[in-house]
Amino acid sequence: MGILLKWSAITQQEVIQLIELVNISKAYRSGSVSVEAIRNINLTVNKGEIFGIIGHSGAGKSTLLRCVNLLERPTTGSVKVGGAELTTLSPGQLQNQRRRIGMIFQHFNLLSLATVRENIAFPLRLAKLGKKEINHRVDELLQLVGLTDHADKYPSQLSGGQKQRVGIARALANNPDVLLCDEATSALDPQTTNSILALLVDINQKLGITILLITHEMHVIRSICDRVAVIDQGEVVEMGEVLKVFLKPEHAVTLDFVSQVADSFDPRELVGVRKGKLVRLNYVGDLTYEPILYNAVKATSIQFTILQGIVSRMKGTPYGQLVIELIGSGSEVDKVIAVLRGEGLDVGELT
Ligand SMILES: Nc1ncnc2c1ncn2[C@@H]1O[C@H](COP(=O)(O)OP(=O)(O)OP(=O)(O)O)[C@@H](O)[C@H]1O
Ligand SMILES: [Mg+2]
């Protein structure tokens, strides 16, 4: 329980639900056949959060994301953004609400015959702003995404990362509350991916924009998301704080994604090979840097050896995971485990 308490303490802040999806389902019809792309999805995204949805190809990620701004109309269910129920709005009202929701895409979807400046100005023209106001706003946006020197270029003259920066500037033009990202970095190399992810974090922190992103890369989730939902065959199979999902994945699909970025050695292979008791220790937050293990064994005759370990940071929060072998008498081993748990460590017994 100790570790759960720590996790909730880390994210303690006032919670306002900005996106509320209740029982969303979407069936596509092709001829007489109906394909249910997503089924009974319930999902809430809090204001100020970066929320990630991960799933394999065809899992229903894009369908789900497109239901949030009603680019796709769910067959059943309710979609609320900022308290407004979108499914019952008139076309005019929906158009107004959509200004509060920006969106970026894997293949950028830029106007190829328009310059960077014109691409970014496009939604401002639709919102009927004056020419002077548009130019001023576009200059601000160019600066925000670092493209001031490229304003008069055409998309074909830009790198993938620069094209996505144009997409981001265009999505932010009308000062939305929410940014939806559909595989925004999947067409980019790892270094460019990281620079776009850093820009998204910057936008989230400086402008307070809530971000809902979909991806099939666990690296993206680990780098920038606060919470994650894992979607498989149209259903949410696991959801929670990223740190928790990483350290204790429960569903097979989640395990699959976590192993994309984790050490591939499974210490359970040592069960029966090593004679001592094997335990997995999870540390989160300040506990990570405390000499808890040393203190737990020092008054006993227990020896320990580390079989696997990582100490790292996730979104600035330290965490550690060690697999250790405790060597000594059964009663002393039990005592050490009790002390570790008493200190707030999550202790899993592998043998
Ligand atoms: N317009 C459509 N008409 C019919 N079926 C569709 C349509 N769009 C999606 N589907 C089907 O719905 C399911 C979910 O598709 P979706 O595009 O949401 O998946 P995804 O998780 O975004 O996949 P990817 O990672 O490949 O982008 C798939 O079986 C797909 O074939
Ligand atoms: Mg998709």
Helix/strand layout:
Elements: H1 2-10, E1 17-30, E2 33-46, E3 50-54, H2 61-68, E4 76-81, E5 84-85, H3 91-98, E6 101-105, H4 116-126, H5 131-145, H6 160-172, E7 178-182, H7 190-207, E8 210-215, H8 218-224, E9 227-232, E10 235-241, H9 242-247, H10 252-261, E11 277-284, H11 292-297, E12 303-314, E13 317-327, H12 330-342, E14 346-349
Parallel strand pairs: 3-8, 3-9, 6-7, 7-8
Antiparallel strand pairs: 1-2, 1-4, 4-5, 9-10, 11-13, 11-14, 12-13
Bound molecules: adenosine-5'-triphosphate and magnesium ion.
The site of magnesium ion has 2 residues, from helix 2.
Which key features would you list for this structure?
ATP-binding; Rossmann fold; ATP binding; elongated; disordered N terminus; binds magnesium ion; ATP hydrolysis activity; transport; 6-stranded mixed sheet; 4-stranded antiparallel sheet; MetN_ABC
